[in-house]
Design goal:
By secondary structure, the protein is of the alpha/beta class. It is built from 25 helices and 26 strands.
Length: about 750
């Protein structure tokens, strides 16, 4: 059966594992996956692929797996669809073929029974196979299809064979589409402001925007300006150390929040505990705080250290005032203590494991500063389920509890801001951003190392911007192992992130279908795409979205085939449209009328120049200064192309009757971005059928420098630049009030 040449065996195994044989880049150029890349990716997935014998063993194991394991680990069905057939593979001798009987039981998420029935003897046999001298038969049954949406444990007992056999799999019943507010279906549209939370300056914060600032923004933008949504950067947990651990798109964990965003002034213990008040009043502490608050850029290490110091004191006061006894027999003695205990119980194992990692990382860094990543820890600490880790938890439970306490504070504050947005009448409220991946050496990488391919990175194929491709340094999901786990990580990821607001943006949403893998140690140009079980992932996304009543936006920029956008649209996921990129074949701007209604539209994003920076070419000069702009001739060419693009933008405004008075199509007459011109470009988007339009705060205040320069780490102050105005100043800035009035008129609140 496996007598083909070795290269054909390699292609067979690669195809089974979802590795693309080739792909087309954004320019339409075809790239053929090399054998070296195939072998490296297969190895990263845990297959033996270095020689013929290994390939044969891997193929045999793959083909025999459904029979040996009995059934698939997960079954996903959609409501309203015809029943699916489900196969069981059972050891059975010929004499027992007519004696097989099956007992089914389906239980819900709280353990309640949703169905129990028996079939047989005399169940039809659909296929027979002999594996390692053992005979197996395949039985087929319809999967229950009339269950409410949710997750179910299906258990099956088969009797009549050589011995009784028990199978268990996860049954997922999902809706057909993601959640969309009825008002959008009725033709209503909304608008809002987008901001990087860390960039906010205020008279109260500690040198970084926090949840207190966000609360003030909601009061201003939602209650006073009438916006329907506030867009945020990812708020995921970071290590908050330069240069590699401040990007919100490379977090330690995507499941939990960055403690640096906690507003200390809103922590109960900070207000009441004498030792906390004493620390806050200490002159040396206040000097450090003032320095962090007035710095031009966010000093992550300084702010994190200041807040951690105070949170430690708050935690001690919290334990002292709200609990009796000692770990592990700590008992709540107050209502606040019981609230915390309830939170811990509700969050369960995921939070306990995250807090355990945080405590372990803290302890290991203190004892072995050079062992900065968990892969360098003593072997016993590298596996979350090891006895060494369990013993550490027993010894350090009080410290583990500290990190649970910190997450409780963060979640409490963010949920409160979300409630405030609802009370202000904002139809969507907070719009969050879910990063594509996390640091392989962070909390998620440690806990979910069994479903992540740590010997591969993900990125993007070569294009004009990055001729050698892009490597983002993030470990991808292994699609085979992810499915074998019942999609647990993916489910937790969505559930944790969808609970904090009315909308979420999924970064690089194409990863639900395929992701560009780069074997560790090879250049990005040697990567290729790996395909994912998109039907299952979209179903789970729809289920979690409907449960949370959260709108889903997919960041579908770059090399995204039309069929991916079609599938996302059918699933109820909004497209993400950027004004800079929405062009006709001749380079002119697309008319507002051709934008899809099921979309969110913005002028620019964090990886692109701001409006003022774009208009003045600040981004071109920045890249040239960083050595990323090529030759002087290339720089001049970039400016010439920008001049043409500015002319196209002005022409588009004129065609819609939006060109400000005194301006023409000639960009030479408009050397800088004015308030009126910025407002006109946003009104251009406001005329689109897009359900949501966002304006970036930086574009309203005329900030030139962009948030992030792709391809740089420490050459540019990425993810650190503060806004040039405080929250208090912006709330009094007439530019916001004027733009809000125009946007409210163009698209009344939903």
């Amino acid at each position: 059966m496996y007598d083909q040449p070795e290269n054909e065996l390699l292609y067979l195994l690669s195809d089974r594992a979802g590795i693309a044989a080739d792909y087309h880049d954004i320019a339409g150029t075809r790239h053929v996956t090399t054998d070296e890349t195939r072998r490296a990716i297969l190895s990263a997935m845990g297959f033996r692929a270095t020689d013929r014998a290994g390939l044969i063993d891997s193929l045999i194991a793959w083909d025999q797996r459904p029979w040996v394991q009995g059934c698939d680990p997960v079954c996903v069905v959609r409501t309203g669809q015809a029943p699916r057939e489900w196969s069981l593979h059972v050891p059975c001798e010929p004499s027992g073929d007519g004696q097989l009987s099956v007992h089914w039981k389906v239980s819900g998420e709280r353990g309640e029974t949703h169905g129990e029935w028996k079939e047989g003897p005399g169940i039809p046999i659909h296929e027979v196979r002999s594996i390692q001298d053992r005979r197996y038969v395949r039985l087929a049954f319809p999967v229950p299809h009339d269950l409410p949406i949710g997750y179910y444990d299906a258990k099956v007992w088969v009797q009549g064979g050589p011995e009784p056999v028990e199978f268990q799999f996860r049954l997922i019943v999902a809706p057909a589409r993601c959640y969309v507010p009825e008002s959008f279906h009725a033709g209503r549209r909304t608008w809002g402001l987008a901001l990087q939370l860390y960039s906010l300056r205020s008279e109260q914060n500690w040198g970084i925007g926090d949840f207190g600032d966000l609360s003030r923004v909601v009061e201003w933008v939602g209650a006073q300006l009438g916006a329907g949504v506030i867009g945020l950067n990812p708020l995921h947990a970071l290590k908050n150390t330069r240069p590699y651990h401040i990007s919100p798109y490379s977090p330690s964990s995507r499941l939990y929040l960055n403690e640096i965003y906690i507003d200390i002034d809103r922590v109960v213990e900070a207000k009441a505990a004498p030792d906390v008040q004493s620390r806050l009043a200490d002159p040396a502490f206040r000097e450090q705080l003032a320095k962090a608050r007035t710095s031009e850029y966010v000093d992550y290490e300084a702010v994190a250290a200041l807040k951690r110091t105070v949170l430690d004191l708050c935690y001690r006061a919290f334990l002292r005032d709200n609990f009796e006894g000692m770990e592990p027999d700590l008992k709540p003695a107050t209502a606040r203590g019981r609230l915390f205990q309830s939170y811990i119980q509700q969050e369960g194992t995921p939070l306990a494991d995250y807090a355990l990692f945080q405590a372990l990382e803290e302890e290991r860094h203190a004892s072995e500063p050079h062992a900065v990543v968990w892969a360098d820890w003593p072997e016993g600490y590298r596996a979350p389920a090891s006895e060494a880790v369990a013993e550490f938890k027993r010894r350090q439970m009080e410290r583990v509890r500290f990190f649970q306490y910190v997450q409780w504070l963060a979640a409490e504050q963010l949920i409160a801001v979300g409630g405030q947005a609802g009370a202000a009448g904002m139809p969507l409220g907070l719009y969050h951003d879910l990063a594509l991946g996390s640091d392989r050496y962070g909390a998620d990488g440690w806990r979910f190392q069994e479903v992540l391919a740590h010997q591969a990175d993900c990125g993007a194929p070569p294009d004009a911007f990055a001729p050698e491709g892009q490597n983002w340094g993030l470990s991808p999901f292994d699609p085979v192992k992810l499915r074998s786990s019942g999609y647990q990580f993916f489910i937790e990821l969505l559930r944790m992130n969808l609970r904090y607001g009315g909308a979420i943006r999924i970064d690089h949403v194409m990863a639900l279908f395929r992701l560009f893998w780069i074997p560790r140690g090879l250049p990005a140009s040697m990567g290729t795409y790996v395909h994912y079980p998109a039907d299952d992932l979209l179903a789970i996304l729809a289920l979690e979205s409907v449960r949370a009543e959260t709108l889903v936006i997919g960041e579908d920029l770059g090399t995204v085939p039309d069929w991916v956008r079609d599938r996302l649209g059918a699933a109820g996921v909004l497209s993400y449209r950027v004004l800079y990129f929405e062009r006709n074949g001749d380079g002119s701007l697309k008319s507002p009328s051709v934008y899809p209604a099921q979309s969110l539209s913005v002028v620019t994003t964090h990886d692109l120049p701001t409006l003022s920076g774009y208009w003045e070419g600040t981004d071109i000069e920045t890249r040239a200064a960083l050595g990323l702009g090529g030759t002087e001739e290339a720089r001049r060419g970039a400016f010439a192309e920008r001049h043409m693009d500015k002319g196209r933008l002005l022409a588009a405004l004129r065609s819609e009757g939006l060109l400000p008075d005194g301006l023409s199509d000639d960009p030479s007459q408009s050397p800088v971005m004015t308030t009126e011109l910025a407002a006109a470009l946003h009104l251009y988007l406001a005329r689109t059928p897009s359900w949501v339009v966002l304006a970036n705060v930086e574009d309203v205040i005329g900030q030139r420098a962009q948030t992030n320069v792709p391809g740089t780490v420490d050459q540019h102050p990425n993810w650190s630049r503060k806004l040039t105005a405080t929250v208090e100043q912006m709330a009094q800035d007439s530019r916001f009030a004027s733009l809000a009035a125009q946007l409210r008129s163009a698209r009344p609140s939903v």
